[in-house]
Amino acid sequence: MRRAGAAALSHVRQRWPTARSMVVVAGPGNNGGDGLVLAQLARDAGIFTHAMLVGDAAALRGEAQRALQDLRTAGMDVQPFDASLLDAHDLIVDALLGIGVRAPLKPEWRAAIEAMNAAGRNILSLDIPSGLEPDTGRALPAVHATATLSFLALKLGLFLGQGPEHAGAVLFDGLGLTATAPSQPALQRLDHGCLNAVLPPRTRQSYKGMFGRVLIVGGGVGMPGAVRLAAESALRVGAGLVTVASRPEHLATVVGARPELMFHGVSDAPDVDAVLAQADVIAVGPGLGRSDWARGLLQHVLRQRHSTQPLVVDADALNLISEGVALQRCADWVLTPHPGEAARLLGMSTEAVQEDRLAALHALCKQRGGTIVLKGAATLIGHTGSTPLLCEKGNPGMAVPGMGDVLTGAVAGLLAQGAEPFAAAAAAVYAHAVAGDRCARNGVRGVLALDVAQELRGVLALLP
Fold first, then answer.
1. 354 near 339, Cβ under 8 Å?
2. How many angstroms separate the Cα of 36 from the Cα of each of 47, 125, 171, 327?
């Protein structure tokens, strides 16, 4: 607890060097004890510090009780919580609940959280914003922190659900200790290494046939843009040859502005056979729709594809699968549902998926097999037997039509170059999110899916 208080003071000095006063809102557990230690250290360092306790001081136990006694011995008063004092300080330190939060919140906890949020001051939360469930990121409600300093181990709730909205800048301090960790972590965060793992340097003797043939299947009535976006994305991540199989009337739309693409018209499901057998990878679903044409085409592709052809399934293909139209489980496919599609696949509400995204990911892996990409803020990638992956990149500007189609094409394009499904999904998600961030450098409004597809090349240019 002494180390946590000292670490917190160090981060306060680094992040808010001009702060001259702070108020520590302490709770009845060890998180409150961390805050009380910080209060004493900050006062000793010359920062005007006010300490307030939410709840009964008699509830403090062990080291937290000792921290309170030390503070009083040092001549510093700890008074009951008073919301009117919050806005008189440069900084609020949230040491109310930490990971000890449980629903429902007690009225005094809820009132303190709401008062801190309403104070209009910078807030440093210790370990995790109070009111945020540490395993799911569900806000009960929770403090909206400017920054969160997590001790010993990063908490899942900082990255899942509503966590990123409440955590602010996530800081970490191991306190100089070796934490006792499970043999397998609950999540692993993606970084640029996932791209290096699947895209080795190309030799001067390279030719397009070395980098795979992708077949994009979809584009129902009035939906040629989805397959066009997916196909361009596959090219942008380096696939050798990309063919679109769609309704014949979509020929001009697909290849008119991107002549590097090939096109095959499909009036009836068997028409796809001419290009299906030639593909190294099949992506089905972008713009597919749910018409009889779409149902028949999906069923035919899933029946006729060879077991050696990796499969990416997205959009209405997922919805049709959830309706029992086609194959229900596969060991080598990649499914890329957004929360609504995931909910339909699992037979639950979208709200239930979002309340515990990690549990939803595990359920999808168990029920559907293969590799699952659960899209959304902090996209998750799962595969039975592997540590789930988390992508922290991306931004609200990516919440636009066609963005999922770009991701589908990126996954397919990396699969075509020989990556395993789990690794291909991870690399595609990361590259897609980083491309989105690059496109949003001048603002999140107005970013287009095609912008992101074209920016993929810039992301991959950072590789050898």
1. yes
2. 14, 13, 20, 58
What is the chain's pLDDT, residue by residue, as a tens digit (464 residues)?
999 999 999 999 999 999 999 999 999 889 999 999 999 999 999 999 999 999 888 888 898 899 988 888 888 889 999 999 999 999 999 999 999 888 899 999 999 999 999 999 999 999 999 999 999 999 999 999 999 999 988 999 999 999 999 999 999 998 887 655 556 789 999 999 999 999 999 999 999 999 999 999 999 999 999 999 999 999 999 999 999 999 999 999 999 989 999 999 999 999 999 999 999 999 999 999 999 999 999 999 999 999 999 999 999 999 999 999 888 999 999 999 999 999 999 999 999 999 999 999 999 999 999 999 999 999 999 999 999 999 999 999 999 999 999 999 999 999 999 999 999 999 999 999 999 999 999 999 999 999 999 999 999 988 76
Give 256's contacts (C-beta < 8 A, 6+ positions apart).
none
| Bond from prior residue into 104 cis (ω within 30 degrees of 0) | yes
Domain tally, the chain:
2
CA dist 84 and 119 (Å) reads 9
Q: Are the C-beta atoms of 212 and 415 separated by less than 8 Å?
A: yes
User: Is 186 a domain residue?
Assistant: no
Q: Domain range for residue 427?
A: 193-460
Distances (CA, A) of 106 to 27, 55, 101, 123: 12, 10, 10, 21
The last residue of one of the domains, among 127, 158, 181, is: 181
Both 171 and 257 in one domain: the answer is no
Looking at the structure, do residues 261 and 169 belong to the same domain, yes or no? no
Examine residue 187 and state whether it is found in any structural domain, yes or no: no
In a domain, residue 116? The reply is yes
Nearest to 25 by CA among 100, 73, 104, 91: 91
112 plus 236 within the same structural domain: no
